[in-house]
Design a protein that fits this description.
3 domains; 19 strands
């Protein structure tokens, strides 16, 4: 049979490859070197495992650990190896992959007793033995009912419920020795491709550490996130209250008619948390509340809801946006590429901000600025403010928790809040949904409905948004006096039918098609919840529309 033509985007060359060749064969013919790769490839802008075979002409871009998609492949493979180690060392134990925290992944290990350091050591040793054995990770296709039956016999309920969410006739599962598992996207092909990891005890669970995406020869630098771990434990309590931890449990709740209850209880739990924060602010006598969080974490709605609750405590709130303290655009610092760096602390007039806030605290009247984004200039329009002894200023913005931003304001006057967005539910015990994905879905919907941006444009800006967050927002989250989780357990069910059509508009020729396909795949697991069931005061209305708050 005649050769096929494959265009390799890494080299720009077209390669003749035999019919039925896999990605490893194509990589060998492409004749170039890739550090820590390839671990996967984009084939016609869709991520595929290295066992993918060619029966037609295709475009190929090989991926290393230095790409988000490549790191996800590596991480999922580590999850499988950890699952096998748990099965081998602690038969009958349950292992749950949780949220990303401390630059790793927090995992629950349910042994029927507290987890000890020795348990982590045993599991790490077994994982390394599996890696050293160079075991094949086999991808197997079978009728979906056969896969469901296999997982059912092994008592893997969350897998059964996830597969039952699919409309497919066939499903792929993975086999590593005697261990079988299901993952919603591709894995490595051999265990020896794992070159670096660590597993340690962390509080009442385990932390699985992974290589750095920027420097794959080093582990991600571990950071203390005690407060975030507390939020994770609180989130787990909320999941237990609602009886919804995985997609299967979520879908069953919707199927059985509990959508309204799920919405109402989720909203009530979030309102109770905010109410407790408002009580603490008032009890401390704080005068300036500083609120920060990553993009699309829902800071604006959180500030408006918190203002109402502070008012209910007998105080008068004033919401001020830190965006109004931007320096004039011509004075904005530039990045290494010569572009305006709107994310850096130098883009904000911290001197004016501190002067005005201290003046307000001393009972003086100030004229507040407004930043006019179309002209790129700060303007004064006679908007004056004087606060009384029972008034509270609420400030929300990217730099609100940065000590530089409020360095001249007395500490006893300040109360800091970090708005996080944890994953709402997991696909199953071993398939987590990254917290970044929740915010990305929110941003895609908001940008499309209110800012005229396509999903391609929003996805394309993702890396620069993330880089800004990692530099200017995330390092200060542990300084917060309170952390508020803005994720709602039911939100993906609401976003599903609204976001899927937007993602389907992403053309296959776009590089962003791979990310859009990944998002579409996990959205498809969820049953939908009608948007009219979302209360007008819900944080989700900031993105989906119909909010009773004015933005």
């Amino acid at each position: 049979m005649s050769d096929l033509r494959v265009r390799c985007r890494n080299t720009g060359k077209k390669i003749n490859v035999p019919f039925g060749s896999n990605l490893y064969d194509v990589y060998a013919l492409a004749d170039f070197h890739m550090d820590y790769g390839p671990v996967a490839a984009r084939v016609n802008n869709k991520v595929q495992g290295m066992n993918y075979r060619f029966y037609n002409n295709k475009d190929v871009e090989f991926l290393s650990l230095s790409s988000p998609s490549g790191m996800r492949v590596y991480t999922r493979s580590l999850f499988l190896i950890l699952a096998k180690a748990v099965e081998d060392v602690f038969p009958g134990a349950q292992m749950l992959i949780g949220c990303s925290v401390c630059r790793g992944y927090y995992c629950e290990l349910r042994l029927g007793r507290p987890v000890e350091d020795e348990d982590a050591c045993k599991l790490k040793k077994r994982m390394q033995e599996i890696i050293d054995a160079d075991m094949p990770i086999r991808r197997i296709q079978c009728p979906i009912e056969e896969a469901i039956e296999m997982f059912e016999k092994r008592g893997m309920t969350s897998k059964v419920q996830l597969l039952e969410s699919l409309d497919s006739l066939y499903a792929y599962y993975y086999r590593l020795g005697d261990t079988i598992d299901y993952f919603y996207s591709c894995l490595l092909t051999r265990t020896s491709q794992i070159h670096l990891f660590d597993l340690i005890k962390l509080y009442d669970g385990l932390l699985l550490r992974i290589p750095s995406e920027k420097e794959p020869w080093h582990l991600e630098e571990m950071v203390e996130q005690n407060k975030m771990l507390g939020v994770i434990r609180e989130h787990h309590r909320w999941q237990d209250i609602l009886g919804v931890r995985t997609v299967g449990e979520f879908n069953n709740a919707i199927k059985e008619g509990y959508a309204t209850a799920l919405v109402n209880v989720s909203e009530a739990l979030q309102e109770k948390k905010l109410s407790n924060i408002a009580d603490e602010i008032v009890e401390r006598g704080s005068r300036i509340v500083l609120m920060a969080g990553p993009s699309s974490s829902g800071k604006t709605t959180t500030a408006k809801r918190l203002a109402i609750l502070i008012m209910a405590c007998g105080k008068r709130p004033h919401i001020i946006s830190t965006d109004d303290y931007f320096v004039n655009r011509v004075d904005t610092p530039r990045d290494a590429n010569g572009e305006y760096d709107f994310e850096c602390i130098g883009a904000v007039d911290t001197a004016l901000f501190n002067t005005q806030m201290n003046a307000l605290l001393q009972g003086e009247e100030v004229e507040l600025p407004r930043f006019d984004f179309p002209t790129g200039r700060r303007v004064f329009e006679g908007r004056k403010l004087r606060i009384g002894p029972d008034d509270v200023i609420l400030l929300e913005g990217n730099h609100a928790l940065n000590p530089i931003f409020t360095r001249q304001i007395p500490e006893e006057k300040k109360f800091r809040i970090y708005v996080s967005t944890l994953t709402t539910v997991q696909l199953d015990d071993h398939n987590h949904i990254p917290t970044d994905d929740i915010r990305l879905l929110r941003r895609i919907l908001r940008d499309y409905k209110y800012r005229g941006f396509t999903a391609v444009e929003t996805i394309k800006r993702g890396p620069s948004v993330k880089a800004g967050e990692e530099k200017w927002i995330l390092p200060f989250q542990e300084l917060a006096d309170a952390t508020f989780n803005s994720a709602l357990l039911y939100e993906i069910g609401v976003f599903r039918d609204q976001v899927l059509p937007i993602l389907e508009q992403v053309p296959e020729r776009a590089v962003e098609y791979a990310e859009a396909s990944r998002l579409r795949k996990f959205l498809a697991y969820f049953r939908s919840i009608p948007g009219d069931q979302v209360p007008p005061t819900s944080l989700l209305r900031e993105f989906a529309g119909g909010s009773s708050f004015k933005y």
